Amino acid sequence: MCGGLIFNNKDELIRVYFPVPYSTIYYIDSKGVTNKAFWGIRGESEFSDLIFPKTGWAKIESIKSGYWNRFNPEKVYIPAYKYMEKDPNGNSHWFELKDNEFIMGLLVKSYEHPFVYVITIPSPKDYAHIHDRWVFVVEKDNLDKGLSITSG
Q1: CB 45: neighbour CB atoms within 10 A?
Q2: What pTM was computed for the model?
Q3: What whole-number distance in Å separates Cα of residue 116 and Cα of residue 57?
Q4: Distance, C-alpha 28 to centroid of its chain
Q5: 76: which of 2, 59, 130, 135 is 20 to 30 A away, CA to CA?
Q6: pLDDT, one tens digit for every residue, the chain (152 residues)
Q7: 80: helix, coil or strand?
């Protein structure tokens, strides 16, 4: 599962790693507005009063089953330049996105804070040796396809 992201913000590379508490990532909402949100929730001390899942990822299967509906999620696009997956030995593998690709995310909001969870799918066969889950990437030309992933 994606453990790190790199964003290219005006030729400055911004590295974000999920294990770091209060990590924030960029996202683009359905109106095309870019903003920042916390990358999920890590543990009991971080935002302990919220009922959102304590993770940074949302499985596509749980989204389609309706599990996330109770949080009133919004599908968003994560404009990362690269993402990182760790293999079973703890080695990092970085993957660069094309200019026309986005990582799909799920935005949920509390009264005070937005949170984005990276949407994952089963790993493609070529990468199953690295991890059993993979980020859900969509091409800019297929954004409508990415928007139709939730149930209801």
Answers
A1: 7
A2: 0.90
A3: 8
A4: 12
A5: 130
A6: 789 999 998 888 999 999 898 999 999 998 889 999 999 998 767 788 888 999 999 999 999 999 999 999 999 999 999 999 999 999 999 999 998 899 999 999 987 899 999 999 999 999 999 999 999 999 876 555 554 444 43
A7: coil
